[in-house]
Amino acid sequence: MRYLIDTHICLWWWNNDVDRIPSHVSDILHHTEHEVFFSAVSAYEIQLKSKIGKLSLPSKLEASLEKAAIYEGWKVMPVSVQAMECAGKLSLDHRDPFDRMLAAQAITEEVPILSADTKLDAFEVERIW
Question: For position 66, which CATH number holds?
Answer without folding.
Answer: 3.40.50.1010
